[in-house]
Amino acid sequence: MATIKDVARKAGVSTATVSAVMNDTAFVSPELRARVVTAIRELRYEPSQAARNLRRNRSQLIALAVADLSNPFYARIVWSAEAAVAAWGYSLVLFNSDEKPDTERRILSRIRTLGCDGMVLVPVGAANQYQSHEFEGIATVLLGRSIEGNSADTVTIDNHAAGRQAVDYLLDLGHRRIGSVTGPMQLSTSKGRLDGMIDAMAARGLAPQPGHVRSGEFREEAAYSVARDMMGSPDRPTAIYVANGVMAIGVMRAIADLGLRCPQDVSIASTDTVAGAGGLKPRLTRTEHPIADMTNEALRLLVDRIEERGAEPVRNIIFQPALIVGESCMPLRGDAG
Amino acid sequence: MATIKDVARKAGVSTATVSAVMNDTAFVSPELRARVVTAIRELRYEPSQAARNLRRNRSQLIALAVADLSNPFYARIVWSAEAAVAAWGYSLVLFNSDEKPDTERRILSRIRTLGCDGMVLVPVGAANQYQSHEFEGIATVLLGRSIEGNSADTVTIDNHAAGRQAVDYLLDLGHRRIGSVTGPMQLSTSKGRLDGMIDAMAARGLAPQPGHVRSGEFREEAAYSVARDMMGSPDRPTAIYVANGVMAIGVMRAIADLGLRCPQDVSIASTDTVAGAGGLKPRLTRTEHPIADMTNEALRLLVDRIEERGAEPVRNIIFQPALIVGESCMPLRGDAG
DNA sequence: AGACTTTAGCGAAACGATTAGCTATCGGGG
DNA sequence: CCCCGATAGCTAATCGTTTCGCTAAAGTCT
């Protein structure tokens, strides 16, 4: 691998001049420039990123740490993020914290030693688990979830509105006994969506029955088992609001295995869905978030922070959900309960 | 950010000693070691990866370039790869060539300048598009697809067996007029699967009708439109072999939109499926590949190449598919065609 | 013509680690 | 008593860039 010195020697100039040519950073006479350019080509010289990084104190790396790579929601984020990062001239280093705070801690430290210029983080775990030095000196944008008391920029979704919209829809169909399968309560997303549901019902003088609100990990299996349990009892809800796409799959499977039909026996509305499920029956009624837009926005904020050293105020961007009607809900039959 | 010099000064030792402590690379007396360790902790010193990279000529980065991040098949690979890479002590840099050879070319150059220690590549495009210097000096494993004439290690699947197994299953159910929706013919995967289908039929003295073999991009939309076209004609096949998971979704949607039912009117068998679709109806009958095992194996080979400088012979590992029976196929009715 | 500016390019000092080679100390064997 | 080997740690070179500050040479102004 040729170095800048080889090029300089071959072109009969100093390394400073080669560097100037490479980076267009100073005026170089056409004659010298030509000699340098041919030397570069002949030696197939490519500057060492390592040396450049050391000198410039930059790595051109942006880290993305998501909560669960097996979840299509995050796979979608990864997809968008890769494109956005490349468009900004960086490369994407990907991490999966797998919803484990310990893993996340290791990831944060790794991101730091790698010298990433910035990171987009989908935080896992409660606010008090983070230490401020974990974020020091590295541009950060929190995506999807926020950390209370943290001063990083955030791009989140309006979880309350998502829960409220979905449940309002079920209420409009006449459902009164509505249950929910939702994620861990320490996450702002689960909490917000459930609060939205509760407020939607409260606005009509209703409240979910205690046994009709179940939470578990944001995973298909967890949803399957709580749904199976909840729907096995005789006073089961006539409709379910599921807080997450993969959980919705689990709930539908549980219902099918109990011999119930969706939507005839149980209506299901969710927030978020899984990509590819659009082709299968029944199509889920759900609220969706503009994942690509959110991710692009997160990277815009991040690159902004990286490249302007300016201490702009913290920015919190909240995206609104949209209700997408599928075939997984029906009006409640006459014998309403 | 504290440097090794700060630590050395604070502990009253030389930088060499600090380095020795950090890397356990030479014997240091317990007393000095203790002083160094506390200095490290107090200054919150973390070695600069950039400096280390420059000196060691290593980056601890492994690149993964997949063909299409929007495809759950590759999302699954990314998931596995992240875990494997982390387990080997590296970090994963992710690229999406989006099935575009030009994009892939840029990615290869980027991987090179980043100084990645190795790369796992799902190649896009035909063998003659690659230049040998694009692979020079960087450990490479080809995953899923191979490049004829290339001397990199490969981890692939037995595409021929996959096509053959799936179509044998359809034949066993009595189907004779079997069609196929498959990917671009220049890809070894599409070609192999279709050859497997043709051989399966040939073994029973059959051959697919010309209009019953359609190829298009490995995308849902492409599959939807060719399937719609193919299934619209009166002599449509009674069963379809679909070469890819997302295409299978497209085909099912096309069939539903034509007012046909699966499996009653058309049986569908595929190679590969989409994650999450397991919960929805009807469950696809398909051949599956052990994606996690394949990815792990690819990284094992890669790390092997990176860490042993030895010139072992080229290794080509081929994984076998397994048939998974769902509910998307039925025996052909009496009026067989 | 002398005194400044500007320009084009060079030399060498960073950046922050690793590591080869050296020195000083100590103990033990001949 | 001298020499040798082992031990513990230091000095300084090195990795490949970027960039600050300098020097001639050439141009501009009085």
UniProtKB/TrEMBL annotation, chains A, B:
InterPro entries to which the protein is assigned, alphabetical: HTH_LacI (IPR000843), LacI/GalR-like_sensor (IPR046335), Lambda_DNA-bd_dom_sf (IPR010982), Peripla_BP_I (IPR028082)
Q: Where are the transmembrane segments?
A: none
PROSITE patterns named among the record's database cross-references = HTH_LACI_1, HTH_LACI_2
* GO MF term set: DNA-binding transcription factor activity; transcription cis-regulatory region binding
| CDD domains xrefs | HTH_LacI (cd01392), PBP1_LacI_sugar_binding-like (cd06267)
HTH lacI-type domain residues: 2-56
* Keywords for the protein's UniProt record, in alphabetical order: DNA-binding, Repressor, Transcription, Transcription regulation
**What is this protein identified as?**
LacI family transcriptional regulator
**Organism expressing this protein natively:** Mesorhizobium helmanticense
